[in-house]
Structure formats: C-alpha cells, structure tokens
Amino acid sequence: MQAKENFSFEYCRETADWLQARTKQRPRIAIICGSGLGLLADSLKNQESFRYTDIPNFPHSTVTGHDGHLIFGELQGKLCVCMKGRFHMYEGYPLWKVTFPIRVFKLLGIEILLVTNAAGALAESFHIGDLMIIRDHINLLGLAGQNPLLGPNEERFGPRFPALSDAYDGKIRALAMEVARDLGYTSFVKEGVYCMVGGPNFESIAEARLLHLLGADAVGMSTAAEVVVARHCGLRVFGVSLITNQVTKEYDTQEHIDHHEVLEVSQRRASTLRMLLTELVGRLEWNSLSNSDPEDNQTAYQNGT
Ligand SMILES: O=P(O)(O)O[C@H]1O[C@H](CO)[C@@H](O)[C@H]1O
Ligand code: HPA
C-alpha cells in the first residue's frame, strides 16, 4: 500500500509547478520511450531537458536503455514532453511511483499520451522487428491486486471505479494504421493485446503458454499500469510495442532471451518506430479527433461509454 502523503495531488502539483517554472513550453502530447527507444526523444526540436535526478519527487531510472531525462520540445511543430526512460515495478518502485509522471503530465496540461515499449511476441504471426499497435491490454498485476490506483481515490484526478473498455483510443489507432499504410509499413505493423507482467525474470515456458492462452499477443513489464493511471485522469492513450524477441513456448529449444538482445533489436528498429510516431504526431489534429475535449472524454469515460 502506498504512503498516502506521497500520493497526494499536492505532491504531483509540486513537481508540475517546478517544471512549469523552468520551461515556457506547454505541451499537450506526452511520449514515453520504452527500452532502447530514446531516439524519439532525441528528435525533438528546441529541447529543454531535465534530469530525473533534478526533478523534485521524480523516481530515478535504474535500467540500461532508460536514460533518465524528461525532454520538452517540438515534434512536427507540436509541443511534446518526452520521458527518455521509464520506471518499472521490478526496480523496487511501488506502482503509484512508477506511474507518478502520468499525473504530473495531467497537471502540465497533457491531453494525449503516446506510450512505447519493447515486448516479446506470444502470437505466432508476430516477428522480431514488428510494431504492434496496442488494441487492449491484460494487466496481470492489476488482476492480482497490484494496481496503481489502490488506496484512497483522488477525485481531482478521476473516479473511484474507472472503466477501461476503451483504454486505447480508437481514432488514434485508426490514424496510426493510415500512417503505416502511407509509409509502406503494413507488412510489419500489426494490432494486438499487450500483457503486463511484473518481471524482472522473463517468462517460463508454462507462463508463456498461459499468457498466450489468455489472449495476449505480446508481453512486457510496463505500460498497462501507466495506461490505467492515464485513463483514470482522462488522457487519451495510444500505445505501440516493438517486438524484440519471440517468447519461447517450447521446451526443446536452446533460445534464452536477455535484456541485451532486447536493447539490440529496439535500437536497430528505433528509427522505424520514430518515423511512425513522428508522422502520427504530425497528423494529430484536435478538431478531427472527436471527444478531444478532455471534459467530454472524462465524462464519457466515467459513464463507461
Ligand atoms: O517495457 P520497456 O520499458 O520497454 O522494457 C521492456 O524491456 C525490459 C526487458 O528487456 C523490461 O523492462 C520490459 O518491460
Ligand atoms: O519476452 C519478454 N518478456 C517480458 N518482457 C519483455 N520485454 C521485452 N521482451 C520481453
């Protein structure tokens, strides 16, 4: 259970105020870079960068491939803030702290969260290097009672019982598919279900088979908790997984995945993911995304519609 005093609205406000006092940029889009995917943050123009270690209340990155900078800047003429490096529960952080930046984003005025990750393929039709647009998720930790929203609900962020049936924005997913078509990416851009596990160990064979049976197409150790908190506070969410490895589901194999391999593939394919997201950001037009008004979005969300 989180320490209540650290979970407060005021604690998030303090961090947001600190950032707003140091940058004049007021982005509406936030991007989280997954393992080895920091290249996206590097392409922002007019960058203002803050080390996580300097930002009050912010957790610190401890994983290779997660650099530890919050970067404000412009992508395709749109102001964005980019997390170059995210936090995971296996680093020893409670989930409320893993997801703390999301609430700070909300207070900064963010309306759309673009989340990326490196993930292992469970679906046979997925190949290493594919991009999986996240259609939905299985929050295995959440189902087992490890949820970032545990504890007293902060009504200023969102409702006690948020619906998640529309977690990944349909209009933004459709736009991303259009972008993929225009870039000639359709052969390796897929849609699927992401499953979040706790890590840090990779899956046993029996676990991999179970997750696949449950309906997961890809597995990783992040994202779903961030999305739960983002939806709770009314952000629109788009997610994409870079498939870095096949998850072994057979006993008679010599394959052993490790984090270096994950990083090697994500770094090799980072420019492709960057291209997709850059083009997507360029085409995000608030007017053409209906219920783009955060008030409307939140209302629809609370009603579960
Ligand atoms: O989800 P991201 O942060 O991209 O990282 C993925 O890569 C790491 C394993 O190699 C795990 O942290 C897994 O979640
Ligand atoms: O195979 C995986 N399992 C869990 N997390 C991961 N992150 C990248 N690949 C994997």
TrEMBL record:
Catalytic function, reaction form: guanosine + phosphate = alpha-D-ribose 1-phosphate + guanine; 2'-deoxyguanosine + phosphate = 2-deoxy-alpha-D-ribose 1-phosphate + guanine; 2'-deoxyinosine + phosphate = 2-deoxy-alpha-D-ribose 1-phosphate + hypoxanthine; inosine + phosphate = alpha-D-ribose 1-phosphate + hypoxanthine
E.C. designation(s): 2.4.2.1
InterPro entries: Nucleoside_phosphorylase_d (IPR000845), Nucleoside_phosphorylase_sf (IPR035994), Pur_Nuc_Pase_Ino/Guo-sp (IPR011270), Purine_phosphorylase (IPR011268)
Class of the enzyme per the UniProt entry, highest EC level: transferase
GO terms (BP aspect): purine ribonucleoside salvage
Positions of a purine D-ribonucleoside binding: E203, N245
One cellular component (GO) term of this entry: cytoplasm
Membrane-spanning ranges: none
Gene3D superfamilies (UniProt xref): Nucleoside phosphorylase domain (3.40.50.1580)
Keyword Nucleotide-binding in record: no
Pathway the protein takes part in: Purine metabolism; purine nucleoside salvage
Pfam families reported for this sequence: PNP_UDP_1
SUPFAM superfamilies referenced in this protein's UniProt entry, alphabetically: Purine and uridine phosphorylases
Domain Nucleoside phosphorylase: 28-281
UniProt keywords, alphabetically: Glycosyltransferase, Purine salvage, Transferase
Coiled-coil residue spans: none
Keyword Glycosyltransferase: yes
Molecular function as annotated in GO: purine-nucleoside phosphorylase activity
Binding site for phosphate: S35, H66, R86, F87, H88, A118, S222
Similarity-based family: Belongs to the PNP/MTAP phosphorylase family.
NCBIfam families: PNPH, PNPH-PUNA-XAPA, PRK08202.1
Role noted for this protein: Catalyzes the phosphorolytic breakdown of the N-glycosidic bond in the beta-(deoxy)ribonucleoside molecules, with the formation of the corresponding free purine bases and pentose-1-phosphate. Preferentially acts on 6-oxopurine nucleosides including inosine and guanosine.
Name of the featured protein: Purine nucleoside phosphorylase
Organism expressing this protein natively: Eublepharis macularius
